[in-house]
Amino acid sequence: MIRKLAKAAVAGMGALIFPDKCLGCGKYIKKPTENPLSVCFCLTCLGQGMPVFDHPFCPACGRCFESGPDHLCGACLETPMAMQSVRAAFVYKGMIQRALGLFKYQSKLSLARPFERHLFQAFATHFDMDHFHLIMPIPLHGSKAKKRGFNQSYFLVRNFPRLYKDAYDRPPPWRIDISGLARVRATISQTGLDHKARKKNLTQAFACPNPARIKGKHILLVDDVFTTGATCDAAAQTLLAAGAAGVSALVLARA
Ligand SMILES: [Zn+2]
Ligand SMILES: [Zn+2]
Fold this sequence. Notes:
Layout: H1 2-13, H2 43-47, H3 74-78, E1 86-91, H4 95-105, H5 112-126, E2 134-137, H6 142-148, H7 152-155, H8 160-168, E3 175-176, E4 182-183, H9 195-202, E5 206-207, E6 218-226, H10 230-241, E7 246-254
Parallel strand pairs: 1-7, 2-3, 2-6, 6-7
Antiparallel strand pairs: 4-5
Helix pairs in contact: 1-5
The site of one zinc ion has 8 residues, from helix 2.
């Protein structure tokens, strides 16, 4: 299956007009490898660290540990999150941190496709994909989306149905839902706020305009970065309050 996924990822590259210069160092990229990100970064830059999210980690929040078996982390034992589980494609450090900055704040949209493929592989690796009914990118508030021009989380999943079909030869049991969850209040930037302040900032930031569509559904939230998890957890709380059966999160990079 993984090989099939990798094959699909490389096949998808053919149609892509990718930058021939490395987004990291500016040097020309010789030949893309099987790593989807090799169309945007040279091998030297990739070698500087695209740490893949892997065991051991906390089965709930996905916090990675240096060694030992998987176990619930202290934070989850103390205050469990609303989400059942959080998984990621990468650990948020090194080149991936830089690449995400380029994607989000400098609109390097050539990264969307490789990111999406890595995220899809993480979805296949860490979740029972057929468990979900809806995949929901975390929405941006209207004013923020307008300023940026795009919702980075939607760009990470918009081709998931096709990737699933290519890998499994059948249509996915879930669909991408971009209107079931709305951002109703603009939050100030979370950067620089401590955990408590973040949580307060996010209170009532989300709403479900149509709870009938949410009721009884297993939902996978998708976001680009997971640091404290306050954003995803606020969204999950809103969805559960609207009647969702369960909420998990898949992110590109987990701090
Ligand atoms: Zn480079
Ligand atoms: Zn945890």
